[in-house]
Amino acid sequence: MKPIRLMSGFFTVSMWTLLSRVLGFLRDAMILAFLGTGPLYEAYVVAFRLPNMFRRFFAEGAFNMAFVPMFAKKLEGKEDAQGFASEAFSGLASILIVLTLAAMALMPWLIYGLASGFAGQAQFDLSVEFGRIAFPYILFISLAALLSGMLNAAGRFAAAAAAPVLLNVLLVAAMALAAWQGGDVARALVWAIPLAGVGQLGLLWLAARRAGFSLRLRRPRLTPDMRKLVRVALPAALAGGVVQINLLVGQQVASYFDKAVGWLFAADRLYQLPLGVVGIAVGIVLLPDLSRRLRADDTSGAKVALSRAAEVSLALTIPAAAALMIIPLPLVSVLFERGAATADDSAAIAVAVSIYGLGLPAFVLQKILQPLFFAREDTKRPFHYAAASMVVNAALAVGLAPVLGWIAPAIATTAAAWAMVAMLAFGTRSYGDVARFDRRFHRRIWRMIAAAVIMGVVLWAANIGLGALLAEPWWRAIALTVLIGLGALTYFISGRALGAFHLSEFKSALRRGA
Description:
single chain; mainly alpha; 2 domains
């Protein structure tokens, strides 16, 4: 087989994802500055989350987790991969058109299901209006996700990873133009969402054509391949539904506390930076690589790929988690505290960020362990594990809310993530040695943790020492830059000294295309 360049693909996706997330921070900072954390912002959060929730359910969750392994194996076996992709594209488009029309008609009920605490308040009517404008985004972005899966399976990661950049560029441009013209910034922002979906779909359609994939719309038919796709996708859809129910439960609880929906959403955006750059990137690259290696019976190569993916992702994730837990307030205040966003908002968001930081390694480990199941077209067990984690999440979010208030959903999300990792790790035991990390990983993971602990101590002390500067708006960004630089340097030096990682190995892997 011609293997996917695992490390090269990982860094390609990571770099584009990093650019997208940096632009996403600019977008979120502008939104908070223009809208604050009041009704307009909370309505935007619900409206934007609605199509993204269904997107993860249909495209990135159920459909792609079933489609990518099947497409990759057909590509490896030189079967009619393009014909299969055309059938899948047509079937998905048909489902999404019906879903979009139904959702727009039933939008008030959907908003009530997402945030019943908004009922009787200004946020409710605004959420219905914004939701109807934004929801068609799911049609375009889900079809774009299928094209991304095709490109990823072929080892072409750049265009698929670059597409989200377009979303943030258009949203930032729409807000800037509306503010410059003295227009309605909130509605300009919401109308830009479906327009960005059209742009992303067009970009990936052209990239697929350049890669040699020419899809044709067909009348949807239930062929043997499509039956198999549905059979594999259904448990993944249920698993994706469970994950989205977790989000729904958290948002429902938060909607009963003033400004909590906005605070949790802003905190979610912050921890999504390392999760996207590391966890999601490695999952995107690892799934098609494992699928093709398993088709070629390359079990030793699959184990090495799994171990190196885990090693490099955790080497970056563990220090990021430590930073989110130790210096959340400087991060939040520099990124979000301006305009209508106040110091009280920063303090609340920082609490949620520190809790999400504790769960960050779990979120990344899920992205590493799940491809072991999906590459074998085993979507039933991940569904069972996701259902169990849903119970953990709901019990903690609802049970702790009367005691701890609005922060209960963040605690529940982190606890459920670690429960999911424990179940996934237990489930992989049935696959034997190929699904276990190698000795090098086990030797180095503890050294990474030790290096992160050293970094954490230095960050804690430096945060106290720079406290006066971090409290000054004009010096805050410079002090944060010093903090981050000091933390990164400490982790690098201590990690090298402890033997946690060797940069020469990563460079060598990139040259070999490992």
